[in-house]
Structure formats: C-alpha cells, structure tokens
Amino acid sequence: MTSADRPARPVLSDGIVTLRPLIRDDIDGIAGACQDPQITRWTAVPSPYGRADAEEFVARQEPDEAWWAAPTWAITIVPEDRWCGSLTLRLDGADGADVGYLLAPGARGSGHAERALRLACAWGFSSLRLQVITWHAYVGNEASLRSARRVGFQIPPHVFEAYGVQRGRRRDSWVGTLTPEDLSAATRVGEARRDYLGPDLTRRERDVLHHLALGQANRTIASELGISENTVKNHVRSILEKLQASSRSEAVVSALRLGLVSLPS
Ligand SMILES: CC(C)(COP(=O)(O)OP(=O)(O)OC[C@H]1O[C@@H](n2cnc3c(N)ncnc32)[C@H](O)[C@@H]1OP(=O)(O)O)[C@@H](O)C(=O)NCCC(=O)NCCS
Q1: Contacts of 53 (CB under 8 A, 6+ apart)
Q2: Does the Cβ of 43 fall within 6 Å of ligand 1?
C-alpha cells in the first residue's frame, strides 16, 4: 500500500471501549501507568520507565509508514477520551501479526482488554485481511491468558521455553494463535452463553449491580468499593448495555429476574 492509498487511521469502538490513535496528550498517562509493577513484570517496556520513554513511544507512531507497520491504539473507556491502555498489532510482513497490550491499573478488572483485543483483531482480519494473529505472555500472566482465551486465541497448555525476550532476558512463555474462524466461533459461543446463562458480567460489575439493587447512588457505591465515581459510571453503563436496560431500575428488575442479584431480606 502506498501512502496515497492508505485510509485514515481507524477508530474502533464497541460502545464501551474505544481504540483511537495515540496523541501527545497521552504521554503523561502512559508514563504514569508504566510505573506499575505488573506492567514492568509482564511486558517488555523499559525499566525504569521515564517520561522520555513515553514521548519516544508516541513519537514512533507519528510517521504513517511506522503506524501501518504496527498499528497502535490508545485504549479509552467511553465516554472519556483519556488514555487507559495501549494495544499494538505488529505486522509480520506476510498475512500475520503479533498482538501486545496493557491497561493502566485503574482500568483493570472489567474485561476491557478482552474488548480491545476483539476490536483490534476483528479489524485486522477484515481490513488488513490477516490470516492469523499470534499472542504470547510470560508464564504466569493469568489475566492476559484469560483475556486472550475469551477472544478465541487457541493456547495450548504447553510452555514454550525461552520463547519471550524481556529487557535482554529470555522468558518461558505461553503462545497462542487466532484465526478469523477462531474469533467468530468464540463470539458465537459468547452470544450463546449469554442466551442460556444471561449476560456475562465481570466480578466488578456484579459488585456494582449488588449496590444498585440496594438503591445506592454512584457516590456511595464508589466509596463502598474504593473506586472513583467515574469508574462506577462506566460499570453502570456496561451493566445497562449487557442487560439491555435503559435505566438503573430496569437493570435491577432484569437482574432480579435472571437471579443475578437478590433483594436484602
Ligand atoms: C493483562 C491485562 C491487560 C488484562 O486486563 P483486564 O482486561 O482488566 O483483565 P481482567 O482483570 O478483567 O482479567 C481478565 C480475567 O483474568 C482473571 N484474572 C485476573 N488476574 C488473575 C490472576 N492473577 N489469576 C487468575 N485469574 C486472573 C480475571 O478474573 C478475569 O477473568 P474472567 O474473564 O473470568 O472474569 C492487565 O492485567 C494488564 O495490563 N496487565 C499488565 C500488562 C500485561 O500483562 N499485558 C499483557 C502482556 S501479554
């Protein structure tokens, strides 16, 4: 593809998570999040991580050529546009790509990585005509493993010794692959599961739902759960979407009907 043929960098959204190109305003968020020990432990970002590393990461995406060789997005949580994580598809020059991602600590626990992965992989298959996307994580990274499995990555229990490289050291890894068929099959299984078992709420969403059923306001829920009011709002929006409810009370009624919550006696 020549630069003249290239479409604009895509913005992808499922209504809960939006992937958009990185901007310079993301630098502070990235530099702050990359102080997190889990990010140091499970990714290959530099350690220690400074503001200059974040500046370099964002600047690297600026030339069109570079972006299309490794499409990279900021993960944001609707309706805010704030950087909450990053995801990259590193193209292999044939018809494959390797995916890498991370979320800021405050954005975890709600399945956002799974949503971001699904959006980026679906786009890679449909727009770039990729045939396979590979995933790997250092052995022990259960959160990443579960997110990737839910999207449909086929990940054998086998440990690939010394497969990964982290800051110059080899790391034993789990490795998986995703084809367009794997992605469609996992999406169908997710939908069928929802039809049989009701919506697939995350642990945090179930906690928030319980407090909604008690009639509590966002501020009270936030203080009881030790999270921000904005995070509560995001959880409520996701709960309404999953329960196909137009209000909090409608969501509680659906949840009671589905046995997801019970009223206090
Ligand atoms: C990996 C990462 C992006 C996942 O973020 P997330 O979308 O918030 O994921 P969640 O916290 O919702 O966890 C996903 C699943 O793993 C489970 N999980 C999380 N931590 C776990 C642990 N230590 N042991 C077992 N299961 C765990 C969650 O319960 C959830 O399960 P569910 O889907 O059945 O509800 C995030 O943890 C992160 O940024 N980690 C540091 C960077 C990193 O590891 N990047 C990936 C490199 S391959």
Answers
A1: 31, 34, 45, 46
A2: yes
